[in-house]
Amino acid sequence: MDKEERQRDEKTKKASRGRGLIQTVGAGIIGSVLTLTVLPQTDYYQDIIQDTAGVTQQAETPEASPVNASTVSNSGDITGIVENASKAIVGIENYQEQSNPYTGVSQEAKAGTGSGVLFKKEGDYAYIITNNHVIEDASNIQVSLYDGQKTKGELIGADPLTDLAVVKIDAKYADNLLKVGDSSSLRAGEEVIAIGNPLGLDLSRTVTQGIVSAVDRTISVPTSAGESELNVIQTDAAINPGNSGGALINSKGELVGINSLKISTSGVEGLGFAIPSKEFQPIVDEIIKTGKVERPYIGIGMTSLADVPRNYLQELPNEVQAGVIVANIDETSAAAEAGIKAGDVITELNGEAVGTPADLRRQLYSGLKVGDKVDLTIYRGAEKMTVSLTLTSNAMIN
Known about the structure:
This protein is an alpha+beta fold. It is 19% helix and 38% strand. Residues 287-354 form the PDZ domain.
């Protein structure tokens, strides 16, 4: 093979690798690569967490009202708050269908354990808030109550992007509910209590105490629906595998956060995160009402431009340094109808720069609604264009 033939062969191989990369990305919605990895805070991942650095994910009678733990304890002391609040904390066991490799027979096996909080009772049912990653892919949900009773839980709905889910059980099991407080009033330095089931149900309703380290933190978290930005409370109260879905409680004994994440890496301590009540309350209310969370939908899978080697995008102008690459298209979506193609690079939405998939989702979900018309600035190779489309609902794909 002469020199010219070898050069042609190398170019062909490089182009093939480029197509293969985009096709691999197109297999799902992939977020930006993070230095810190997100893992569910369930005991199923206990061994993984020991070897992995990263961010880890982690009460009434039928006619009664939610109990504010500090009003039950006249002194408002920690022991009184804990005694009453703990009765609203449940264990959640996620069972999944698994096939026996030797017999081929499918059977349920426990895939993980997390926590949940009883916070509402309505009619014949009581409602539990937890994390999506605690119940994700479950074929059967078992709920363990403070008095040792167990009952079957029914998933009402879940929202992977906010990592929230709602499970319901028979109201007769809900002797205690935890009152939801106002997280917007929290201040750095305020005392908080975390209650959950670290490392499984053997250590159920473990109590840890700390302070609010910061409010309104924003962290990027890969989820099953793509990379998401969560607004969270930072706390130094100990949060361990199994604490996910458990309660973060203020000094009044009110639920102000759902414990979800922590930084887990050598030399780092006391960096836990909870979804604040001002964020989870509207989401869980919508889930209880409709079984889902409706959001604007374009119809694309995407990855960050920064995650694709530049030599695979040689036609893209050098000045384009940030954006999202369209990895795949829902052929029934507004994106397909507007003519968007896999491989296109989106750099702006309505004139606002788009640097990552999280940027695009933030712009879609914070200021736009189903039915709005949007303009996307797109590069197709070296060609720059504007594509207009009307946002549809993600409910259409369910």
